[in-house]
Amino acid sequence: xxxxxxxxxxxxxxxxxxxxxxxxxxxxxxxxxxxxxxxxxxxxxxxxxxxxxxxxxxxxxxxxxxxxxxxxxxxxxxxxxxxxxxxxxxxxxxxxxxxxxxxxxxxxxxxxxxxxxxxxxxxxxxxxxxxxxxxxxxxxxxxxxxxxxxxxxxxxxxxxxxxxxxxxxxxxxxxxxxxxxxxxxxxxxxxxxxxxxxxxxxxxxxxxxxxxxxxxxxxxxxxxxxxxxxxxxxxxxxxxxxxxxxxxxxxxxxxxxxxxxxxxxxxxxxxxxxxxxxxxxxxxxxxxxxxxxxxxxxxxxxxxxxxxxxxxxxxxxxxxxxxxxxxxxxxxxxx
Length: 335
Fold this sequence. Notes:
335 residues, alpha/beta, single chain, 11 helices
């Protein structure tokens, strides 16, 4: 009897459509996650259901409409391509399924398909290169909640962060080389942000967020999201021979008035424009598939801001999407 290994690729999620009701539904599920907005449940419900979802959904729906393609959500489209190519690469002794932490296709549906196929073991791959409780941790928690009452379930494994994987880094280096980085005045490595409290809560004894605390990955801060982001940027920059003074690590997508990890990407863009920088090449290595945060936030929003302040262009380096090198990276992680 041939043994079958199940692979569950899990990305963050996307609305089913750019309509206001679908965006509102997505925002509620996403922001009501206790690991995303980590405040008491009553406060979280009042904030999300009473303020954020009603007022943010119409605005976000307009943004999603600008990036929506004939094939639908870019994030879902590229994730499907990734699944198909990985399945072909792994062969018939593996069954690869795709899930989104929020909305569709759901983690529940993916797990049921793998279980019904009688997989001997299941490997869950959260597609977030740098580990955070709000992303990777949330996937692990959701999977365990879904299977905890099952009478029987295959052996299950979770992959961790993969910011250090050589083929992951190589894939971003390959994408960056297409734009000839030396032709740009400055390079941005813009990562998704997190509230500062989530960093300090995760590593209370690591002296996080102090001066230069993340500049070197050490035994003490090796599990820190911010430190892993700096390490990712440093490795990509070294491979592309970008000197330290020519690139900046920053963080985007902050929400609300609470302090988020710094420096903020939009403020860095403003500072670079004020210094006379004209051309910026921007990487976003927290994402393995292009989405609202890459296509619109960096490619449109930051580019527009930069031009208004006298800059010429912010060029987005596309994400890994269905990169063959990234497929090889996933195969190595699985093996």
